[in-house]
């Protein structure tokens, strides 16, 4: 007896310092709607993420200078992880929807550009869209993304480390508060220690800095949706809107369908039911 193909499969790509397990609340909410999904771990993330010496034992001295084990990873390495998952699910689903969060928009976009036949729709959740400007840092460092963020979260020199490094287990209250407000402000304070312990330390520098070139026959041929986060402090709404506008200007044949969710940068944790409802809704 031949198995019937799944109607729709969502392939979920996390952002910087996160991993596949951060999608679990949203995957439960999708499953409750009868929608299948699989979450990807990009290289250097998840349970296999290497950690700087002493990070788990309280020895923080080396964190500012110890070169990242992820320094040699490329944008293509990360896109290949997405492509591998897309190829594994393509034959078993009538429709494949690729969903990317934040910095995960880079690898997801490159994967879609290189194999548009594997993707029926691509969704950006407050995620980098390289259609107007080629690298994540082009938008992250834009005036539209300017905010008084305090002393900053980056540890050490990213160029020397080969990664943008955070210290999620920091004992400095001001650092913990900034991390909380930037990425997961909608989660209650009593859950701060739990959520930050699930973050990894290093984002390979290639992910935010590598330029990506998209074409109308590749990425531009795929219907696309952008889910804005209205109270996002990591990727400000003005920067999200800039990416949408510049992508639509660069490739006007398939303009973005846009949804807006209230709240912070990470609705997959704080608002999984609302996010699942948007993802599972028919595209407009």
UniProtKB/TrEMBL annotation:
State whether keyword Hydrolase applies: yes
Keywords, A to Z, come to: Hydrolase
Q: Which domain of life is it from?
A: Bacteria
What Pfam families would the database entry show? Abhydrolase_6 (PF12697)
* E.C. numbers: 3.1.1.88
Is-annotated flag, keyword Hydrolase?
yes
Enzyme class, broadest EC rank: hydrolase
What InterPro entries has UniProt attached to this entry?
AB_hydrolase_1 (IPR000073), AB_hydrolase_fold (IPR029058), Sec-Metab_Biosynth_Hydrolase (IPR052897)
Q: Which GO terms describe its molecular function?
A: trans-permethrin hydrolase activity
Q: Where is the AB hydrolase-1 domain?
A: 10-278
Q: What is this protein called?
A: Pyrethroid hydrolase
This chain's source organism reads Actinoalloteichus hoggarensis
């Amino acid at each position: 007896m031949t198995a019937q193909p799944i109607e729709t499969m969502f392939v979920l790509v996390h952002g910087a310092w996160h991993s596949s397990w951060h999608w679990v609340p949203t995957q439960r909410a999708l499953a409750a709607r009868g929608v299948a999904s699989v979450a990807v771990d990009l290289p250097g993330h998840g349970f296999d993420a290497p950690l700087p010496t002493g990070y788990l034992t309280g020895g923080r001295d080396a964190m500012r200078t110890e070169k990242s084990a992820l320094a040699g990873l490329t944008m293509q390495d990360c896109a290949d992880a997405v492509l591998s998952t897309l190829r594994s699910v393509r034959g078993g689903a009538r429709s494949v929807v690729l969903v990317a969060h934040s910095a995960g928009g880079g690898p997801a976009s490159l994967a879609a550009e290189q194999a548009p036949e594997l993707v029926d729709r691509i969704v950006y959740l407050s995620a980098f869209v390289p259609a107007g400007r080629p690298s994540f840092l082009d938008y992250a460092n834009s005036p539209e993304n300017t905010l008084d963020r305090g002393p900053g979260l980056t540890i050490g020199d990213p160029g020397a480390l080969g990664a943008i490094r955070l210290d999620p287990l920091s004992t400095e209250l001001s650092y913990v508060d900034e991390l909380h407000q930037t990425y997961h402000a909608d989660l209650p304070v009593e859950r701060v220690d739990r959520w930050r312990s699930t973050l990894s330390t290093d984002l390979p520098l290639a992910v935010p800095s590598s330029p990506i070139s998209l074409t109308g026959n590749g990425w531009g041929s795929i219907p696309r949706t952008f889910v804005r986060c209205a109270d996002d402090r990591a990727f400000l709404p003005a920067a999200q809107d800039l990416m949408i506008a510049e992508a639509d200007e660069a490739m006007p044949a398939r303009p973005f369908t846009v949804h807006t969710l209230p709240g912070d940068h990470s609705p997959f944790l704080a608002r999984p039911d609302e996010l699942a409802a948007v993802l599972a809704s028919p595209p407009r």
